[in-house]
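C-alpha cells for chain A. Residues wanted.
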C-alpha cells in the first residue's frame, strides 16, 4: 500500500490550499466517529473502491493524478484531533502518492492481497485516511485499490473520484491543464456552515418533524436471529450478493412506471414487507441514506455528506402491496422534504433507551443506487469498476443495497455475523426475490397472502410437517400390553424395592380387577379416578381400568386436597380407586374402592383371563378416551384433557423405537401420576417388554444421591425435566447405557453439552393435548453450539405446522405459532366445549374434518429440518420498549460455571415497578452473576436483582414452580442519594459538567439523564484527564452511574492509567480509543 508522503503541486483551478487549519467534524462525520469508538477493535467504516485499469498504463502518470486529487480535496489530507472529548479535523500538508506495484498471478491472489491490505486499521490521529495500491495481473491489466475511510468518502465521492482521475490522466498524457470544476467551498467550510445552521435553529422544524413521526415508533426490529444477541455490537459482518432475475427487473420497472413511483419505492416496500413477516411486526423503521449534497458546489466534492433518514413503514398484514407502495412513496417524499435534519439530533431529541447491542432507532437499511458509468477510455487506458474486497463488517443487523447496472438489479445483503449465519441470509435473499415477483404480479392481494416461499420450498415444508419412520399398528392399550404378556410372561414387569411382579402376575391381577369394575358398570366412555401413589398398585389400577374399557384419571395424593377436590368435582368420575390411606385423606363424594397389594378389592377367585369386547359394556375402540390428565389453565382453573387410545398407541411405538427400549431395559418411573409423562414412562416400559422401575420416596433423592439410585436400580431410561437434571452431576457414577429424555421445559445449551457426552440425551417436546410427545431429537452430540438444542422433528403420526396469525404456513427461519395435528391429538377438554373450540381448530391442510391444536408456543423451522422452540407467546415480555425472552436470559445465566440452577421471571411487586429477577442456586456472588449476564446480554435483558435459593421450588411434575418464587428484597436505588465517597463526588461533578446539569444522584443513569454517545466520549475524556482513569465506552454502558463506576474503579476492574492523557495510535494499530 502506498501513502501520500511529500507536498505536491495542485491544479491551477483548484481552491487555495488550507494547511494547519482545523474545523469541526460535520454531523455525518461525527456520527461515524462516535460509532468507531463503540467498536471492539479496528475500523468498520472502511470504504474501499477497486478500479480495473486495462491498457498501457503509465504508473508515474497515475501517481501524479492521484496526488492532484489528494491535494484538491482537503479531507484527503486531513487527520482527526481530539481535545476534551471533541473531535476536530486538522488539515495537514498534502503528500505525493507513491504507488508500490505488486505483481499477482491471478484474480484470486489479487483479491486476497486487496483484502489483506484493507484489513489494516486506519490511524485517525496521524493519517493517512486514504491509501492506494496497484496490482499488476499483466502488462496491460492492473487493479487500483483506493482504500479510504468513510469519514471522508461516500457513494457520490466515488463518482467524483473516477471522473477526476480520468480527466487528470488524460490531461497528463496530452500535456494540458486539467479541466476540473472549481470547488467554491472546502469541506471544512461546509462543516462550519452546517454547525452554524444547527446552532441558529434553521433545522429545528425539520428535526421536530422527525420527532413527531418517530415518537411512538417501535424501538427495535425483532428479527429472529441464529445466535444470541451479544451485549454490544461488535460490527463483525459479512455479505451475500445475488442478482434478481432479468424478467423480474423488467416487471419491477414496469410496475413502478404504472404506479408513478420509482423502483426504489417498490423495492423498499418489498424489503419492509419481508422483514415484517420475519419479525412479526407491522410497524418498523428502515434507514435509508440521502446524498446530503443540497448546497451548491458540493456535488463536485469528495467528502462525507450522507444523512440517514429513519423512514417509518407499516407493513400491516391486511394491507395490499400497492397500498404499502403508496405509503412508502408518501414517507419518501416527506423524507426528501425534511432530509437535512441530522439523524443524530433527532435521536438526541427523542432520547430512546440506550442499548449498545443495537443501532438506535433502526437496525436495517435499504439503499438503491445506479451503477457508476461502466467504463471510461483515457490515455490508452480503460477504467472500469471492479468488485471490492469481501465485506468483513456490518454497521447494522441487516441491510441491503440494490444497484441497477445495465438493466440488471444486483443486490448485496450486509449482515452482522454475531446474529446471522450465511444460510439464513441466503434464505432471506430468496424470500425477498420470491416476494417481489409475487407482489408485482398481484399488487392488490393483502401482504399476508403474498407468498415468501417458492413452490419448491413449500413442497419441502409439506414433507417436513409429517413425522416419518415406522407407522404403528393402531391397537388399544390393553391389547398392546397383552401382546407383551404373551411374548414374555415371566419377565419382570414391575419392580419396587424388593417387590417384583412378572408380566403374567400383573396381567392376571389387572384382569380380575377389570371384571370387578365391569360388574360395577364401568366401561367405555366412563371415567374412573385413581388416587394412589407411584408404585405397582397404581400400575395395576390403571391397567384394570383400561381393560374394562374406561378412561383413568390419575390423582397424585401429594397434590393439595383443594386441587384434588376441584378435579374430582369437575371430572365427576363414576368410581375412585385408592388405598387405605387415601380413603381417609379427604371426604370423597365419589364412590370408592379400596385396593391393597394382597387383594384387589374383589374376590380373588375371579377369572384372570384376558377380557374381550364381549365382556365389556360395549366394544373398546381407538377413538375412546384412554385417560384424562388435568393441566393448569390460564384462568387459574385446571382443565381435563381427554387422550385417546389412538394417540397412546402412536406415542408408545415412536418412543420405544427412538429411545432404543428393549425387553431388558429398565425404565425409571419418575413423574407424578398426575403428570402425563407418567403415562409415557409406563407405556415405554410395559409395551416393550421392559421393566417399570419404582423407587419409594424417589423425589427425596433429587439433589442428593439420585445418581446412586440410578446405579443401584440399573436404570437404562429416565425422563427428567431440565430443572431436575441440572441438580445432578454427570461426573458421578452412572449406568453405562443410560438414556435421558429431557422434557417438560426448555433444555439449555449448557445442560445439553454437559450431559450429551456422558450418556444418550434426547430432547422431547409435546403438550398434554398431543399425547405427551410431538417432536424429539437425539441422541444429542454435544456439538450443538451455544444455542439451546432444537426440539427435533415430528414423531410418526404427528403433523407440525408453523403458522402466522391467518393460519398460513411460514417458511424456514420465520417464527410463528406452533400447531399440532395428526392421530396424537386429544379429543379436547373434558366438559369444556368453549375451550375445546378455541384450542382445537379446523385444520386447513388435508382432508375436511381435520383438526389441529394451537399450542401457544412459538417456533420456526431450521435449515436442517429440525424445529426450533422460540418461546411461549405469554413469555414474551416488553421491558423499556424492547421485547425479551425470559428463556434466553435463563440460558445465559445457566452457562455460568458456578450456577447450578436458575429461573428468571418478571415481577411487579409494587405498582409500576416491573423488574427482571433471576433466581439462582449458585456459589458465585450476585455481582459476578450480573456481570456475566451483562457481558452477554443487552442491558435491558440483564436482571435487576438476583435472589439466591438453596433449591428452586418444584411442582410435583418436577418443573420450576414459578408462582412460589419469593419476592426479592427491595434493591431499587434511591435516585437522589448523595455521593458517599470522594470518587463518587468527583464523578457526579464531571457528569454534571458534560450534561450541563446542576446536580445528579450517584445512582442515576448517565444515559437516562440525557447522555448520548458523543456525551459519553466527552465524559470519558474528562474522567481520563481529571482523574487519571481510563474507562472504555463498553464499561460505561455496563456501569452507567457514578456509584457503579466508582465501585469498578475501587475494585480494580478499571485501571488507573500512568501514561499521558492522549497518546497517538500507531499506524498499524486500532484506530479506536477509550476501549477497555
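Reply:
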Amino acid at each position: 500500500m502506498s501513502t501520500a508522503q511529500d507536498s505536491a503541486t495542485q491544479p491551477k483551478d483548484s481552491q487555495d490550499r488550507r494547511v494547519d487549519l482545523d474545523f469541526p467534524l460535520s454531523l455525518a462525520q461525527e456520527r461515524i466517529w462516535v460509532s468507531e469508538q463503540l467498536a471492539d477493535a479496528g475500523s468498520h467504516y472502511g470504504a474501499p473502491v477497486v478500479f480495473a485499469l486495462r491498457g498501457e498504463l503509465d504508473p508515474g502518470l497515475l501517481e501524479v493524478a492521484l496526488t492532484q486529487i489528494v491535494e484538491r480535496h482537503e479531507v484527503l489530507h486531513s487527520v482527526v484531533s481530539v481535545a476534551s472529548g471533541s473531535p476536530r479535523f486538522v488539515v495537514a500538508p498534502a503528500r505525493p502518492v507513491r504507488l508500490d506495484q505488486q505483481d499477482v498471478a491471478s484474480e484470486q491472489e489479487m483479491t486476497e492481497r486487496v483484502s489483506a491490505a484493507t484489513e489494516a486499521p486506519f490511524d485517525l490521529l496521524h493519517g493517512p485516511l486514504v491509501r492506494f495500491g496497484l496490482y499488476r495481473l499483466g502488462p496491460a491489466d492492473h487493479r487500483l485499490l483506493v482504500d479510504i475511510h468513510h469519514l471522508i468518502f461516500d457513494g457520490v465521492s466515488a463518482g467524483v473520484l473516477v471522473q477526476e482521475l480520468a480527466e487528470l490522466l488524460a490531461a497528463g498524457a496530452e500535456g494540458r491543464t486539467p479541466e476540473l470544476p472549481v470547488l467554491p467551498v472546502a469541506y471544512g467550510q461546509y462543516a462550519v456552515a452546517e454547525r452554524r445552521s444547527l446552532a441558529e435553529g434553521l433545522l429545528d422544524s425539520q428535526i421536530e418533524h422527525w420527532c413527531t413521526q418517530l415518537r411512538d415508533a417501535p424501538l427495535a426490529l425483532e428479527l429472529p436471529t441464529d445466535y444470541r444477541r451479544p451485549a454490544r455490537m461488535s460490527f463483525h459482518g459479512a455479505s451475500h450478493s445475488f442478482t434478481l432475475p432479468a424478467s423480474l427487473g423488467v416487471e419491477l420497472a414496469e410496475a413502478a412506471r404504472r404506479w408513478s413511483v420509482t423502483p426504489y419505492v417498490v423495492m423498499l416496500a418489498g424489503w419492509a414487507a419481508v422483514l415484517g413477516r420475519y419479525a412479526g411486526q407491522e410497524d418498523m423503521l428502515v434507514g435509508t441514506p440521502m446524498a446530503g449534497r443540497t448546497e451548491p458546489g458540493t456535488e463536485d466534492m469528495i467528502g462525507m455528506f450522507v444523512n440517514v433518514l429513519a423512514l417509518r413503514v407499516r407493513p400491516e398484514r391486511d394491507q395490499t402491496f400497492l397500498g404499502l407502495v403508496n405509503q412508502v412513496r408518501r414517507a419518501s417524499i416527506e423524507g426528501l422534504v425534511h432530509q437535512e435534519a441530522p439523524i443524530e439530533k433527532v435521536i438526541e431529541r427523542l432520547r430512546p433507551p440506550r442499548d449498545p447491542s443495537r443501532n438506535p432507532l433502526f437496525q436495517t437499511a435499504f439503499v438503491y443506487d445506479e451503477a457508476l458509468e461502466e467504463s471510461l477510455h483515457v490515455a490508452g487506458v480503460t477504467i472500469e469498476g471492479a468488485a471490492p474486497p469481501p465485506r468483513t463488517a456490518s454497521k447494522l443487523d441487516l441491510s441491503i443495497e440494490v444497484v441497477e447496472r445495465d438493466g440488471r438489479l444486483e443486490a448485496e445483503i450486509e449482515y452482522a455475523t454475531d446474529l446471522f449465519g450465511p444460510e439464513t441470509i441466503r434464505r432471506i435473499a430468496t424470500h425477498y426475490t420470491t416476494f417481489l415477483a409475487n407482489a408485482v404480479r398481484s399488487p392488490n392481494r393483502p401482504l399476508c397472502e403474498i407468498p415468501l416461499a417458492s413452490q419448491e420450498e413449500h413442497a419441502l415444508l409439506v414433507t417436513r410437517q409429517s413425522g416419518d419412520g415406522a407407522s404403528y399398528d393402531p391397537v388399544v392399550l390393553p391389547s398392546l400390553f397383552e401382546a407383551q404378556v404373551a411374548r414374555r410372561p415371566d419377565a419382570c414387569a414391575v419392580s419396587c424395592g424388593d417387590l417384583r411382579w412378572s408380566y403374567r402376575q400383573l396381567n392376571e391381577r389387572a384382569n380380575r380387577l377389570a371384571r370387578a369394575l365391569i360388574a360395577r358398570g364401568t366401561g367405555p366412555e366412563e371415567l374412573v379416578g385413581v388416587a394412589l401413589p407411584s408404585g405397582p398398585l397404581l400400575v395395576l389400577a390403571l391397567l384394570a381400568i383400561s381393560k374394562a374399557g374406561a378412561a383413568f384419571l390419575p390423582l397424585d395424593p401429594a397434590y393439595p386436597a383443594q386441587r384434588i377436590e376441584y378435579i374430582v368435582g369437575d371430572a365427576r368420575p363414576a368410581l375412585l380407586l385408592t388405598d387405605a390411606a387415601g380413603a381417609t385423606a379427604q371426604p370423597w363424594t365419589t364412590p370408592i374402592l379400596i385396593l391393597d397389594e394382597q387383594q384387589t378389592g374383589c374376590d380373588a377367585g375371579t377369572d384372570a383371563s384376558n377380557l374381550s369386547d364381549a365382556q365389556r359394556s360395549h366394544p373398546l375402540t381407538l377413538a375412546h378416551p384412554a385417560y384424562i390428565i388435568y393441566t393448569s389453565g390460564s384462568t387459574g382453573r385446571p382443565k381435563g384433557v381427554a387422550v385417546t387410545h389412538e394417540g397412546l398407541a402412536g406415542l408408545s411405538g415412536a418412543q420405544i423405537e427412538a429411545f432404543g427400549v428393549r425387553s431388558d431395559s429398565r425404565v425409571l418411573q419418575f413423574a407424578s401420576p398426575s403428570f402425563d409423562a407418567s403415562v409415557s414412562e409406563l407405556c415405554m416400559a410395559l409395551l416393550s417388554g421392559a421393566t417399570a422401575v419404582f423407587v419409594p420416596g424417589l423425589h427425596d433423592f433429587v439433589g442428593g444421591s439420585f445418581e446412586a439410585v440410578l446405579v443401584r436400580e440399573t436404570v437404562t431410561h429416565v425422563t427428567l425435566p431440565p430443572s431436575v437434571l441440572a441438580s445432578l452431576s454427570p461426573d458421578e457414577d452412572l449406568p453405562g447405557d443410560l438414556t435421558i429424555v429431557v422434557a417438560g421445559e426448555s433444555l439449555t445449551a449448557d445442560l445439553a453439552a454437559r450431559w450429551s457426552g456422558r450418556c444418550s440425551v434426547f430432547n422431547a417436546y409435546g403438550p398434554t393435548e398431543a399425547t405427551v410427545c410431538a417432536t424429539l431429537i437425539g441422541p444429542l452430540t454435544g456439538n450443538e453450539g451455544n444455542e439451546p438444542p432444537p426440539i427435533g422433528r415430528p414423531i410418526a403420526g404427528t403433523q407440525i405446522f408453523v403458522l402466522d396469525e391467518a393460519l398460513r404456513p411460514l417458511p424456514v427461519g420465520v417464527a410463528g405459532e406452533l400447531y399440532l395435528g395428526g392421530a396424537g391429538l386429544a379429543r379436547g377438554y373434558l366438559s369444556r366445549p368453549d375451550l375445546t373450540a378455541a384450542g382445537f381448530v379446523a385444520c386447513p391442510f388435508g382432508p375436511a374434518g381435520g383438526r389441529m391444536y394451537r399450542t401457544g408456543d412459538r417456533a420456526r423451522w431450521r435449515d436442517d429440518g429440525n424445529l426450533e422452540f422460540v418461546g411461549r407467546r405469554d413469555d414474551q415480555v416488553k421491558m423499556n420498549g424492547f421485547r425479551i425472552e425470559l428463556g434466553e436470559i435463563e440460558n445465559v445465566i445457566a452457562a455460568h460455571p458456578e450456577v447450578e440452577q436458575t429461573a428468571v421471571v418478571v415481577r411487579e411487586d409494587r405498582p409500576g415497578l416491573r423488574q427482571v429477577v433471576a433466581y439462582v442456586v449458585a456459589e458465585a456472588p450476585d455481582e459476578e452473576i450480573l456481570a456475566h449476564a451483562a457481558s452477554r446480554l443487552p442491558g435491558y435483558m440483564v436482571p435487576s436483582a438476583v435472589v439466591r435459593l438453596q433449591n428452586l421450588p418444584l411442582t410435583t411434575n418436577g418443573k420450576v414452580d414459578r408462582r412460589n418464587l419469593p419476592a426479592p428484597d427491595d434493591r431499587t436505588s434511591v435516585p437522589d442519594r448523595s455521593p458517599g465517597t470522594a470518587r463518587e463526588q468527583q464523578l457526579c461533578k464531571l457528569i454534571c459538567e458534560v450534561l450541563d446539569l446542576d446536580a445528579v444522584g450517584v445512582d442515576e443513569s448517565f444515559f437516562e439523564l440525557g447522555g448520548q454517545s458523543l456525551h459519553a466520549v466527552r465524559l470519558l475524556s474528562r474522567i481520563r484527564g481529571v482523574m487519571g482513569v481510563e474507562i472504555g465506552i463498553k464499561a460505561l454502558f455496563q456501569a452507567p452511574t457514578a456509584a457503579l463506576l466508582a465501585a469498578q474503579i475501587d475494585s480494580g476492574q478499571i485501571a488507573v492509567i500512568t501514561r499521558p492523557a492522549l497518546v497517538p495510535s500507531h499506524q498499524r494499530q486500532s484506530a479506536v480509543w477509550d476501549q477497555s
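The longest helix spans residues 155-174. The two ends are 30 Å apart (CA to CA).
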